[in-house]
Amino acid sequence: MDMDVPYLHTGRTSQKARTRDALIAAARQLLAKGVTPTLEEAAAEASIGRTTAYRYFSNSRALLAATFPEIEMRSLLGADPPEDPLARIEIVAERLTQRIVEYEPEYRAQLRLALEGEPAGGESLPLRRGRRIEWVEDALSPLRGRMPEPELRRLVYGIGATLGIEALVWLTDMGGLSREEAVEVMRSNARTLLRSALERVESGE
C-alpha cells in the first residue's frame, strides 16, 4: 500500500525507504503478538526515534493502515483460468481465505480502523477500496448477460461478504470455530450462493 509522504522524496530516498519499511515491519511484529501498536511503540520496537517516526507517518492510524499487505492484482484467477463460474469462485475463495488467515493480525487491524470510521492519514483504507469485490466480479464475469445485472450485483456482494475478515472474526470469535472450520464455512457459503444463483439461471426463473 502506498502511504508515501513528501519527506520520503527528498534526499537519501533509499535509506528513508528502509526506515519506513522497518517501522511497518515492527508494527506487524507487534500485531502478531496481539498488540495494536502506537507509532511510538512501533518506533521503539524498530529502534527508531519518535521524532523520526513522525516524519514517515502522521499518526498511529496511518502506520496501521500501511501494514496491510495489499496486492495490486486485478484478478486472483491466474493464467488461463477456467470458464466455469463455480470453478472460478473456488479459486478466488481459496486464495482469499488463505490470504486472510496468513495475514490475520493485519486484516483485524484494518477492520478496527474501518469500524472507527475515520480516515487514516488522509488515505482511503484498504478494506474500503473494493478490491475483494473486484476479484469476485472477475470470477463471476462469465455470468454477465446470463442473469439480470442487479441480481448479479447482489450475488457479487453476497459472496464478497462471506469471504472477508468480517466473516472470519465472527465465526472464530463469536462462533468458536477453529480457523480451518471457519474457512471451510466461508468457502462453502460462497459455493452455495453461486450454485443457488446458477440453478435459477438454468431454470429460467
Describe the structure.
The protein has 10 helices and no strands. The longest helix has 25 residues. The protein has 2 domains: 61 residues, Orthogonal Bundle (Arc Repressor Mutant, subunit A), CATH 1.10.10; 119 residues, no CATH class. The mean pLDDT is 85. Helix 5 runs antiparallel to helix 10. With 205 residues, it is mainly α.
CA-based shape: elongated
DSSP strand content: under 5%
Specify the structural class: mainly alpha
Multimeric state of these chains? single chain
Secondary-structure element pattern, one letter each: HHHHHHHHHH
Total of helices:
10
Helix share, percent: 55-70%
What summary fits the major beta sheet? none
Would you spell out the secondary-structure blueprint of this structure?
Blueprint: H1 13-32, H2 39-45, H3 50-56, H4 60-66, H5 85-102, H6 104-116, H7 131-139, H8 149-162, H9 165-174, H10 179-203
Could you give a short description of this structure?
It is built from 10 helices and no strands. The chain is mainly α and 205 residues long. It folds into 2 domains: 6-66, Orthogonal Bundle (Arc Repressor Mutant, subunit A); 85-203, no CATH class.
Keywords:
single chain, about 200 residues, mainly alpha, Arc Repressor Mutant, subunit A, elongated
